Amino acid sequence: MLRKISLYLSQIAWARRYTDRYARDHCQWFQRMRDTLQPHIADFKGIRALDVGCGLLHWQTAMLHSLGADVTGLDMEYVRADAWPDKYIRIWRANGLERAIKTGFWDYVYRGKYRRALQQHTPFDIDFKGLRFEQQPAETLPFDDNQFELLTSHEVFEHIADVPAAVSEVKRVLKPGGLAYINIHLFPSISGGHNMEWKYPDTEPSTRVPPWDHLRQRQFDDHPSWINELREKDYRPIFEDALEILSWEASDYEGKTQLTSQIKEELSNYTEDELLKKGVIILARKT
Q1: CA dihedral for 228, 210, 194, 181, sign (positive or negative)
Q2: Residues in the chain where the model's pLDDT stays below 70
Q3: Which alpha helices (H) appear in 39-155, and where do they start and end?
Q4: How far is it, in rounded angstroms, from Cα 128 to Cα 79?
Q5: How many Cα atoms sit within 13 Å of 230 on the Cβ side?
Q6: What is the C-alpha separation between 251 and 65, in angstroms, rounded?
Q7: Residue 32: closest CA among 245, 278, 252
Q8: How far apart are CA 168 and CA 16, in angstroms?
Q9: Within a domain: residue 79?
């Protein structure tokens, strides 16, 4: 219980300090997606899209919606864009009291600040009204075959227990020729353990939690959500078996100054590239 309280307090502290930075990061990720999709989808207007793992902030769902996409946000937890009291009763029933309290705290303390910052960093108007959500695991999508022209997911697949089933569902619900744009946060990266202390390893390295602790002693094995611990070499054949890979690239590199010769030796089962690569961005097509 004390460790859980400590985790929540650290999340609150980070939200207080970095809400604006979160919003700026999300705008940059979205622009990167637009740039990558530009040769295939120049205009989102009218595109039927699915955002898998839209989450509490549902920023990607809102931004696609704001550009005219017919988008549905999907998450394992109950998600709504408003802050009416009945929302938290629904969350309580669907996902438990703890999640209802955390969501209410975010909505009434930080949501307004985050949305204002998101708009400040976005070159188009963001509309959170009329958003559509479904609650379902990624392994069992609640849609008929061949429904979507675009499926997006930002740093969610590392939290999915049955990745082959989820990728099979991605293929099933995409229309022939439909695109999947999926950003995966890789477990071997310095931030892959999802400890908030290593959220920004290059600009604010932790002085409390050792680098790559989640691959080493696991002294601080606290994170807000379950992680499947797959490596890039585990993901690649799963996606290649189901979809045509148009591009597979690193999302970012981080932690170079933290990777000492001692840590390299200790983590010799991982390549240097694995330890420094934050994640991969996959652009794939259903043939």
Answers
A1: negative
A2: 1-15
A3: 59-66, 85-95, 97-109, 111-120
A4: 13
A5: 22
A6: 24
A7: 252
A8: 39
A9: no
Which residue type sits at 54?
C
Q: Is the distance from CB of 186 to CB of 279 less than 8 angstroms?
A: yes
pLDDT of residue 4: 55
196 in any annotated domain: yes
Q: How would you classify the pairing of strands 148-154 and 48-52? A: parallel
pLDDT digit string (tens) for 155-192? Answer: 999 999 999 999 999 999 999 999 999 999 999 999 99
What pLDDT shows up at residue 3? 58
**What gap in Å lies between CA 116 and CA 162, rounded to an integer?**
36
Mind listing the pLDDT tens digit for each residue in 111-134?
999 999 999 999 999 999 999 999
**E strand intervals along the chain:** 48-52, 70-75, 132-135, 148-154, 174-185, 244-253, 277-285
- Angle, CA of 6, 9 and 10, to the nearest 5°: 85
pLDDT recorded at residue 221: 81
* 107 in any annotated domain: no
Q: Nearest CA to 215 among 191, 240, 199? A: 191
CB contact at 8 A, 231 and 266: no
Q: Domain residues for 239?
A: 137-285
Per the structure, the count of domains in the chain is 1
Structural domain contains residue 47: no
pTM for the whole structure:
0.94
CATH of the domain at 244: 3.40.50.150
